[in-house]
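Example complex used in Figure S2.
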Amino acid sequence: MYDILVIGTGPAGYTSALYSARYNLDVIQVGEMPGGLISEAPEVCNYPGFDSISGMELGDRMEEQVKDIGAEVVYDKVEKIEGDDQDFTVKTSRDEYRAKKVILATGQERRRLGLERENEFKGKGVSYCATCDAAFYEDKRVGIVGGGDAALASALLLSDHAEKVYILYRREEFFRPEPIRVEEIEQEEKIKPVFEVNVKRLIGEDKLEAVELDNSETLEVDGLFIEIGSTPNSDLAEDIGVELSEGGYVKTDEDRRTNIPGVFAAGDVIDSPLKQAITAAGQGAEAASTAYEDLKKEEVR
Ligand SMILES: Cc1cc2nc3c(=O)[nH]c(=O)nc-3n(C[C@H](O)[C@H](O)[C@H](O)COP(=O)(O)OP(=O)(O)OC[C@H]3O[C@@H](n4cnc5c(N)ncnc54)[C@H](O)[C@@H]3O)c2cc1C
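Predicted assembly (301 residues):
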């Protein structure tokens, strides 16, 4: 019986496991693959302590630190959680584990356009995170696919760096935008919205150089930011009755408790606005700390 079982091996999961181990708890961390989403980032320049580090290396260092301190890390897919507070059974594709508390740190997946060469150009012009990558496009030309609020926020952020920003959107107007953002977009000369278009083809040799649109125009761009939403990995949470937001994200209180006793959550899977490695790590620390406090109180009783 473990004190804590953490699901997910991204920044939120590693930090939960790290804090749990430092509280001297028996902790096991189960995740599908090392590093989580951050390992897809070619360069991370906004994680304190590193001027610049590849996402892969950052993930590797987190894993190393967690293992060094004595947490058990297992790479496997969790398929089901059963039981209640103080006695959960977590079933994976190869095994099953029992734990008193469970921390969900399963992250989210960015929606992809599904275009040929999209994977090949990821990190070479195609990006799913303007907050992370905008600074790499100083004085360059970029496109943004999407027309929701996130796409507009990304366009404004990119206009601080890029020379020209095209918003490429399939509808005839933006989707439920904040009015103030639309005003800001209209006032920014670098931003040009193009409505009723879809990106049909990604063009380039070793990196993205242009995109072909379905109105038969070709736009020369150095970067294409895909902002068509994300899907939280919250199926496991939903199965055990954890309350989700409208978009399917896990609801937690400020101490990272969910509505199900003994189940905590942290990182991109939770209903919080800033989805970054640093916030995921912070929430992972909070979840572990709250789980520790609860375990301590329960021991005293
Ligand atoms: C291209 C790109 C660049 C980025 N650049 C930056 C950056 O520069 N700076 C920054 O701060 N942030 C960046 N981010 C965002 C950052 O990666 C995320 O905010 C962060 O990884 C979230 O951490 P997390 O632990 O919550 O989730 P994740 O990192 O997504 O980890 C979740 C883990 O849970 C696993 N999992 C899910 N379901 C199961 C299951 N059933 N069983 C077992 N395991 C499961 C997943 O496989 C994954 O390993 C970037 C994201 C992308 C896509």
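Residues 2-109+230-300 form a domain with the FAD/NAD(P)-binding domain fold (CATH 3.50.50.60). The chain has two domains: 2-109+230-300, 112-226.
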